[in-house]
Amino acid sequence: MTKLLDIQNLSVKFSGKRNVHAINDVSLAMEQGETLALLGESGSGKSVTLKALLGLLPPKRTRIDGSMRVNGTDVLSLRGKALRKYRGGEVSMVFQEPALALDPVYTVGHQIAESVMRHKGLDKANAMSVALDMLDRVRIPSANRRLHSYPHELSGGMRQRVMIALALACRPRLLLADEPTTALDATVQIQILLLLRELQKEFGMGVIFVTHDIGVAVEISERVAVMYAGQIVEEGTTREIINDARHPYTRGLLAANLHDVARGTRLNAIPGAPPALDSAPGACSFAPRCPIALPACRAVLPPVFAPGPRRRVACLRATEPIAAE
Amino acid sequence: MSVTDVIPAADPGGPAQPLITVSGLRKYFPVRGGILGRTQAQVQAVDGVSFAVAEGETLGIVGESGCGKSTTAKLLIGLTERDAGEIVFDGEALGERLSLKDLRRGVQMVFQDSYATLNPRMTIEASVAFGAHVQGLDDPEGRARRLMDRVGLDPARFAHRYPHELSGGQRQRVNIARALAMSPRVVVLDEAVSALDKSVEAQVLNLLSDLRAEFGLTYIFISHDLNVVRYISDRILVMYLGEVVEIAPVDSIWEEQAHPYTRSLFSAMPSMDPDNRTEKPPLAGDPPNPINPPSGCRFHTRCRFASAVCKAAVPKLAGLDRNAAHMVACHLYDPASGHPDAGQGGLA
User: In what residue span(s) does the ABC transporter domain sit (chain B) (predicted)?
Assistant: First the structure.
C-alpha cells in the first residue's frame, strides 16, 4: 500500500527583510490511518509543515526544497485545478481559531454544502443533506436548526465542531489539525479531542495533530514527532516518547509539563530561548540550551540514531544511559 | 543599596489578620442595544465573591473563560469599578481610609499579554521606572536597573531596548520587574505565564518562586492550567459563572474535589498516560452564557447530581465537616438543604 505521507528532506526558507530557515531537512512518513502529533514550541516549524502540505505558503517569498507526497501525489507539483481538488478533497485542515476560519456572512450549512458541491459535484439539496449528516456526526445538538445558524451564533466549542464537520465533509484521507483545542476551555477541549479520536476511527483517515501540549498529544495520537528549530529531533510511538524519551529537549518538555511535580521543588527548566533561524543549522540547534552538550555538539550536525523501527533520535549522546536527575 | 532595600518594612495590619479580604464583590456589565442604547441585559461577571488572602500566601484562582477570574483581578486593583462589595487591604477598606493610589502601591498586577501591556514607544527602563516616578519614589531609574538585573535582564544590554526587540519570556520578565518597582506586598498574576512556551514558562515560575521568598510577596495567581496552579499555590479557589464554588488548601483539593464542577474540571486534565487515556468527557457542552445565568446553583444545568433544590436555592459556601478549611458551595454537603443525597459526606 502507498504511504499516506512521505516527506523527504523538506526545507522551507522564507526570504524578505530577514531570512528565516523555518524547516531544515525534515523527513517524515505516515502509514494510512495513523495519528501523528507534531509537538513543539512556537517557531519550531510545526505550522509551517502543515501549510507546506496544503500549498498555502506565499510562493514569492518561499523557497521549498525536497519532496512531499500524499498518497503518492507529488504535492509540490500541483497547480491550478489539481491543487484545488487536492485541498479540501484529499487533505483538509482544522484551524486553531474557528471564529476566524469560518466565513461570518454564510450559514454553517451553506459553507459545508459549498465544499461538498465543489468536490463531489452534488446539487445544493443533496449537499445540504450531507451537511446535516456531518453536523450530526460531530454531535451538534438539534443539527437541523444549527444548519441555518451563522458562526457568531455558536459557542467556541460548537464552532470548532462545525470546523471539523467542514473539514471531514469530503472524506479526506489526511486531516491536518493545527492546535484545534488550544483556544478552548479545559472541559470543552477534552470533548473535542475525544470526538476527533472517534471520527478518526470511524472514517479511517490519517491525522497530523499539531500541538505544544504534550498532554493533548498523549490523548489524541499513536505516534509523536518532536520538532525543535525546524527539525525533527525525536520520533516514536506515544508510549516511547512518554516513557523513554531520549532527546534532552523532549525530556525537558516532559518536565516542564509539571505533571506530578511537588509544590515548592525547583523546576528543571530548560534555560535560554530557541535560536533565531536566520541561517541553516550547522550543528545541533539545541546545544546552547542542552545540559549535557559536548564540544562536538556545537561543531557538527548530530547523527540520527534509530534504536528501533520508526524510532529516531537526533542526538550525539542518544545511546548513552540517561543519568538520574 | 541592594534590591531588598526597595521593600518597605511597614505592616500596619500586623501578621495576625489577612492581607487582603474581599467580601460580597459584585460586578455586572450592562449589555446595551436597540436604537436608544438601553440596557437590555446584564453580564453577571462576578457575583458575591468573598475570600481572604494571608500575608505570604499564594492563592490560585482557576476556572474556565467567562467565570469571572480576570474581572475579580481587575476589581481587586480598582481597574474596574465594583458595583458592590468591600475590599480591605492590610486592615483598611478601599474608599474609606485607603485611596486607590495607595492600594495600587501595595497591590500590583502582571497581565497575560506581555506585548499589549508595555508601551511600544517607551524603552524597557522607562517602562519599569514609570510607576515609581508617578508615586514619587526615590531614584526610579536606579530602582528599575536593579530590578531588571534581579529578573534576569542585564540592564546594560536591555535598558534602552524597546518591547518589540524582546522575546515573550523577556517581556514578561519586564512586566514582573515593573510590578515590583512599586515595592508591592501583593502581586496579582493574571494568566501571567499562559502565553509562554512550556520551557520558558518553567523559567518564569522559578523566578516567581524566588521573588516570593526574597521579597516576602503574596501572590494571587490566576490560571486555567491546574498543574501550574498546583505547583505555585497554597490554596486554590475555583470559580464558575461569577461565583466561588470551592476554596481549599491545595493538597486537600487535589485529594478530594468536593464540588461536582471542580471534579469535572480536574477530570478534564489530560491523563499523560498512553495506556490509560481519557475515555469519556466529564461534562457535555460549553459553559452557559453569564448573561442570565441559571437560577439557584449556577452549575445545576450541567450537574449530574442536580435535584429540585439546586434549581431553587443558591448554595452557601461552607466548610466541610471533616475539614473546615475546605469550603464548598454545594447542597450535597448541607444536610439541611433538602437535597435527597445531602449529608452522605461526599460525591457518589
Answer: 31-266
